[in-house]
Amino acid sequence: MVPAKTRKLTDPQEVVALSKSDQTFWAQRDLRMKDTQDLVEQDGEVNTEDPDAISVLSNDGAIVVRKLSAMAGSQEPTINIVAAQSVKEQAERTEDLLKAARFEMALRHAQGARAPLAYDEAQSIFLRGWITGRILLNDTPDEHDSFLWDYTLFDPIQVYPTYSRKDLYRVTTITDTTAGELLADWGKDAEKLLGDGAESEKLKLYGYYDREQMAVATDKGWLKKPAKHGYPFGVPWVVGLGPGAFYRATASDTANYTKYVGQGILDIVKGQIRNEEKVLTMLHTLVAKEAEPPVVLYTNAEGETVELDLRSGGRNILAASDKLDILRVGPKLEDLKILADSYRSRVERGTIPSILFGDNATNLTGFLANVLQGSARDLLYPYLRGLETYYTILYRKMLELFVAFGTDMDVVTTDRSGQQLGGVKVSKLEVQALNNPRLVVAFKDITPRDEAAKVQMAIGLKRDNLISAETAREKYLDLDNPIAENTKVLGELAYMDQSIVKVASAMALQKQAQAMGFSVTDLMAIVQQIQASTSGQAPPGGPGAPPPQGGGVPPDNTMLPPNALPPQMGAVSGLPPGMEAMGPQASGPPDPQSLQLPLQ
User: Fold this and answer.
1) What is the pLDDT of residues 172-193, one digit of tens each?
2) What share of the chain is helix, strand, coil (3-state, %, to 5)?
3) d(Cα 79, Cα 92) in Å, to the nearest integer?
4) In the 8-state DSSP scheme, what is residue 536?
5) Among candidates 474, 484, 487, 488, which has minimal Cα distance to 442?
6) In 10 A of CB 507, how many CB atoms?
7) 204 falls in which pLDDT band (50, 70, 90)?
């Protein structure tokens, strides 16, 4: 039952006791997570009855988790705020705000000696079946660090949520730390608590967070006494889950179901992986015994012990009547291979098919390849939806913090390569005007596809007017912003119209004139004079002055308007740079590049 009012915490041991109680409730989940982690870390030995067995540990679990984490982590999900047309621009700027915040959070995460944030988040849900993160205000902002949010990704095995029938109402955490880490993170609060103890001293840290307050304690006392956080959304945590059992109770134990809440990708196949390890261990042991097999020697030499050298290249002298038999004990190699292949196929069915690694891709028909890729999408579906839900809740809470505590922010948006896309200013009033918008975070299909075939299909569908250009760009070319891309294409098509080119050239000429200190009229006169000198014709609109003698311009500047030259050029014989040697004996026209003019 949800407490009617906030729990009043007066003793740090209350936090310790609550955390341990929540840990006990989720004990079955933690045991499952630890068992799966041992499988990935290839920790231990294969249990067999053969004392001479040579253990073979499979790396299938580690490969599957890393492969899927990389596939999901390399695909940044799209952020889309569904808003009315009247606030569409505010919605787009808010999307830019979240993308910029995401970039900064990933950078801060990497500074803690960690893998990329997106990879770690994906690994959390594929390995643990859970993803848990804490979102707080940055309580130590300064002129060097004005970032509003403090986001931390936690290992789910250290996080213990408590739910009502509707939502999350409490989270406790138990983490291992050292005195040195506490001093670095908590400063004077840690000094007051720890005194002059050694920095290597190991400690347990207990966190408590509910809808109104939060606190941090150790076995030695309060590190942060209970305080109201004032967050508008309640508990400052986000929890995402992968697949698992929908039920929340069992006949034997009302807490046993926790073992099946949020299962990782290996939880349904780790039994098969361990069976495969046993078969591979037997195979390895059997092959090793073939090098030094047990033998039986039948000889007439009674009472004598005959030493045999069965090593490679060994020599033995036996009587003609002696007989040597090799003993073959246990299953045959072909029998074990059948078992190993059987377990291997079941592991693939429970994780990802080998086609995603390129195995036998050339021998598959198009239909069978599509079936296997569809199988991979089916397995990934609950994990990707879990990540999408996690990001959606996280970004909503970030926007609520921005509206409640933030200020106007200058946001620079970048793509995944770090290239700057643009800069915008986002105000809290703009975000507030969206009025709790519908925020959608979505992954695209992360399974491998024939990109060339997709492009050709999009071209054909668009040519036959079966889909729009926007749909082709978004669904088949996977462009993040098809509307912006369409604007770019229209802009390029406009330059195929000569009238547009003339207008654009005039605008560029005006900009160039301002940069050089000319008026547009004066610069046009210079351009016409140069064009006339190179073509041997009189400039249009002039007083009919005689043409220059030979190539170039006249040796004086009487044909130029009186205000054509800027003051800084008067000391160079009244001519623009590059024109000093352009008298009647000049060999040719000036280089337009030296004038920095946008000439056609």
Assistant:
1) 999 999 999 998 888 888 888 8
2) 45, 15, 40
3) 10
4) T
5) 474
6) 11
7) very high
| Distant-in-sequence, close-in-space partners of 270: CB < 8 Å, separation ≥ 6 | 35, 36, 39, 61
- Listed in sequence order, the residues at least 6 apart from 482 whose beta carbon sits closer than 8 Å to its beta carbon are 469, 470, 471, 473, 474
Angstrom distance (rounded) from CA 211 to CA 235: 5
Task: Answer whether residue 562 shows pLDDT above 60.
Answer: no
Joined together, the tokens standing for residue 314 give 């060994």
| Interval 228-273: pLDDT, tens | 999 999 999 999 999 998 888 766 677 788 999 999 999 989 888 8
Residue 65: how many CA atoms within 13 Å on its side-chain side? 25
With a CB cutoff of 8 Å and minimum separation 6, the contacts of 437 are 81, 82, 83, 91, 94
Angle separating helix axes 27-41 and 60-73, nearest 10 degrees? 100
pLDDT digits (tens, 9 = 90+) for 448-460: 666 777 788 888 8
The overall average pLDDT reported for the chain is 79
Could you tell me if 314 and 292 are in contact, meaning their C-beta atoms sit under 8 angstroms apart? no
Closest CA relative to residue 339, chosen from 379, 388, 282: 282
Pairing of strands 149-154, 130-137: antiparallel
Contacts of 529 (CB under 8 A, 6+ apart): 539, 553, 559, 560
From residue 33, give the alpha-carbon distance in Å to each of 127, 257, 267, 508, 512: 8, 14, 9, 64, 66
State the burial class of residue 184 (Cβ atoms within 10 Å of its Cβ: 0-12, 13-18, 19+): exposed
User: Which tokens hold the place of 49?
Assistant: 């009855």
Residue 408 structure tokens: 């106007």
Give the pTM: 0.73
Pick the range with the lowest mean pLDDT from 258-262, 340-344, 560-564: 560-564
CA distances (Å), 124 to each of 19, 70, 128, 154, in order?
22, 12, 5, 9
Which strand (E) or helix (H) includes residue 487? helix 482-494
Burial (CB count <10 Å: 0-12, 13-18, 19+), residue 227: exposed
Output DSSP code: residue 142.
Answer: B
User: Rounded to an integer, what distance in angstroms lies between the CA atom of residue 106 and that of residue 88?
Assistant: 27
Q: Kindly compute the dihedral angle of the four CA atoms of residues 398, 481, 455, 374, in this order, to the nearest 10 degrees.
A: 20
| Least confidently predicted of 69-83, 263-277, 495-509 | 495-509
**pLDDT tier for residue 329 given thresholds of 50, 70 and 90:** low
According to the model, what pLDDT value does residue 158 have?
Answer: 97
